[in-house]
Amino acid sequence: MNEALQYQLIKKCSTTKARLGKISTPHGEIETPIFMPVGTQATVKTMTSEELKEVGAQIILSNTYHLYLRPGHDLVEEAGGLHKFMNWDGPILTDSGGFQVFSLGDLRQISEEGVEFRSHLDGSKHFLSPERAIEIENALGADIIMAFDECPPYPCSHEYAKASLERTIRWAKRCQDAHHRSNQALFGIVQGGIYQDLREQSAREITALDFPGYAIGGLSVGEPKEIMHEVLDYTVPLLPENKPRYLMGVGAPQDLVEGVARGIDMFDCVLPSRVARNGTLFTSHGRVVIKNAQYARDFTPLDPECGCYTCRNYTKAYLRHLFKAEEILGLRLATIHNLHFLLDLMKKIRQAIQEDRFSQFSEEFLGKYGSR
Amino acid sequence: MNEALQYQLIKKCSTTKARLGKISTPHGEIETPIFMPVGTQATVKTMTSEELKEVGAQIILSNTYHLYLRPGHDLVEEAGGLHKFMNWDGPILTDSGGFQVFSLGDLRQISEEGVEFRSHLDGSKHFLSPERAIEIENALGADIIMAFDECPPYPCSHEYAKASLERTIRWAKRCQDAHHRSNQALFGIVQGGIYQDLREQSAREITALDFPGYAIGGLSVGEPKEIMHEVLDYTVPLLPENKPRYLMGVGAPQDLVEGVARGIDMFDCVLPSRVARNGTLFTSHGRVVIKNAQYARDFTPLDPECGCYTCRNYTKAYLRHLFKAEEILGLRLATIHNLHFLLDLMKKIRQAIQEDRFSQFSEEFLGKYGSR
Q: B297-329 b/e with 16+ CB inside 10 Å = b?
């Protein structure tokens, strides 16, 4: 049993792989399946901690790469850790910075030792290795921290995907050795691209290292949805039942439903808050682009079925005005709505699993919202 | 007695012209002296209505020029008026649009009939007259509406200032004739630049029209502080004691204290929220520029004497990080702080007048904060 994290499997769906569970962390419990809002720079964009709680956030994610560069993990540690620095007393998960540095393209160079890269802020040179990533994550002090992995692009050859996953396994071992805080749970990551044999190899080797939780990485990077579903179909069953499973970087409403059906417990993505700031809003009948002229004199709430602060107090006409006038309140109200929508969706999913009607719920939701 | 507004003089300071009062409007009471946060485009930038109440806002101001152009006063009227449109159930004051169109410079042309101008948004041609301004303000539905006046620039010749104030008086009469809503109080505006004889003429002629309240316009437009104080010194005594007095466009902390001492009841200005968004913060010991390097590892609150949400929950180091990282939460926390600071200052001023120690309070405040 891990000191920093316990997973309790509460109930399994009788017709799908969906499961209800509970994760205990040093900063509180998380009901799963759950969506984690992303606070890249130690703030979930536009939101206060109180608002995050009001929309139903139980755990948030923050990015090691960004915090390392600014304000610096040493500063955050000096502030008393990330929870205290950003005034969020619930659970936090930090990624390892791997995904961000690999996304830098020409600005980074990979070796067995780690990755040399240039800052997107000022071009300064830096080096991230498994040991360095863990050192930074230890300093930030999140409840759940991720191993330093390589997330290969899509498409990617079998040869590259194999070499990459094997390095990721060696790096996972080095992360484990470097990790020294007993109040932080280190998760391993399954890679292997879209190749079944590689996903099998990766899952076998990573689970042999006995992490307290596992993520599935390298999906939602441009591949068709059918392929993502297929990879989940054969990968999730390779993970131990008594540990949480986290699908990284996935956050569209329909993808959450599809992921839960395949046995995923945790999700994160910037999508809901990013599209909110562009004026694209999730509703029970699909997406609404609030700047459209049809909403100019629409004095009804965005989603009459929604109980969020935005839908309780404002009309589509006012939201549209705020977006047309480029007012910050528009970004706030849209973010509140989209995060509430997703977190409420997860709550409904948990209730449906509890009452063993998840298949029916899933069908109804995808029918109304759309499956793409 | 005016149907839409009553002013009650509660107490006069024994050593200055400061006075404590209460204004009753269709949307509630306002304790004076008061500062009015500005919600230019039907939103006080970054703030929700609940946050405005939490920082102590009793009345807010919105701009006729901006709302007329976008989303349009007819749309706001169709929404049920400005209060309902923006979800603010307290008192609102709208200006007449005069100040904004005169600020357009080459984009506008003045005649006895009114002002032709081009929109700053799309260059389209528009015409504002006293009748049109009142028609728009009637549609917006604020509790207090302002007459359409000309605010001459500084410096300005005696000849121009005289011609302008005389037109403003004629326009005030036309506004009065055009105004037809009994639940909105129309205020007259004293102009006359920095010339004592013209301020006297303007005050005499505008008060003869018997408005339920009077504003002093044309100050804080570039003239030295001493001149502003001098104009207030001889203008305020010309206004009737039984009606509220509003100093337009003034909002620096020291100016509020100086204005109250000269008998002003109401103030408005974008300054506190605008400088907040630039990272300049009012504190009991003067201004703080939060981006300065000295705050990078300052883990204390912005102002230990302040009880606002920002100071209760966040450190200078975190605020600085948010501003360096250009995060919206930084703009929010800064706006909350500055508005709370000003509204709390007004509360302290009211308490000081109530306890007849305003002179002492004023001296102490200006000593700590600085008088410039």
A: bbeebbbeebebbbbeebbbbbbbbbbbbebbb
B298, HSE (Cβ side, Cα atoms, 13 Å) = 16
Which ipTM score applies to this complex? Answer: 0.97
A297/B48 touch (CB, cutoff 8 Å), yes or no? no
pLDDT at A106: 83
Copy the structure tokens of residue A217: 């990485």
Measure the CA–CA gap between A168 and A188, rounded to whole angstroms: 9
Provide the pLDDT for residue B371: 75
> What is the torsional sign of CA A88, A93, A99, A101?
positive
| Residue B321 distance to chain A (closest CA, Å) | 6
Q: What distance in Å separates the CA atoms of residue B164 and residue B168, rounded to the nearest whole number?
A: 6
The CA distance from A353 to A11, in Å, is 7
**How big is chain B by its Cα radius of gyration, in Å?**
20
Tell me the backbone φ, ψ of residue B265, rounded to 5 degrees.
-105, -30
Cα–Cα nearest to B5, from B21, B19, B17, B16: B21
Does residue B95 carry a catalytic annotation?
yes
Total count of residues recorded for chain A = 372
DSSP lists the bridge partners of residue B223 as none
- Residue-wise pLDDT for B266-304, tens only, equals 999 999 999 999 999 999 889 999 999 999 999 999 999
Q: How far apart, in whole angstroms, are the C-alpha atoms of residue A58 and residue A92?
A: 9
- Return the residue matching tokens 């498994």: A130
| Alpha carbons B215 and B194: distance in angstroms, whole number | 15
Average pLDDT, chain A: 97
Report which residue type is found at A214: Y
What is the pLDDT, as a whole number, of residue A1?
57
Instruction: Mark out chain A residues that contact chain B at CB-CB < 8 A.
Output: 41-43, 45-49, 70-71, 75, 78-80, 85-87, 296-297, 299, 309, 313-315, 317-318, 320-322, 324-325, 327-329, 331-332
Residue B231 has which token pair?
Answer: 């104009």
Task: Please state the rounded mean pLDDT for residues B83-108.
Answer: 93
A95 carries an active-site annotation: yes
Active-site choice (A265, A268, A303, A344): A268
CB–CB of B325/B350 below 8 Å? Answer: no
Distance from CA of B112 to the nearest CA of A (A): 32
- C-alpha triplet B12, B15, B19: angle, nearest 5°: 25
Question: Would residue B193 be called left, alpha or beta, if left means φ above 0 and alpha means ψ between -120 and 50 degrees?
Answer: left
Interface mutation target, options A40, A44, A45, A48, chain B, most CBs of B under 10 Å? A48
The amino acid occupying position A239 is L
If you count residue pairs, one on A and one on B, with CB atoms under 8 Å apart, how many are there? 101
Helices assigned H by DSSP within B179-315: 196-208, 225-235, 253-261, 271-277, 309-313
Pairing status of strand A214-216 against strand A245-247: parallel
Q: Which residue of A has its CA nearest to B297?
A: A75
Cβ-based neighbour number of residue B11 at 10 Å: 14
Residue for token digits 């700590």? B368
H-helix or E-strand containing B146?
Answer: strand B144-146
Q: Which helix (H) or strand (E) holds B28?
A: strand B28-32
pTM of the predicted structure, to 2 decimals:
0.97
Instruction: Please choose, from the candidates B219, B201, B204, the residue with its C-alpha nearest in 3D space to the C-alpha of residue B259.
Output: B219
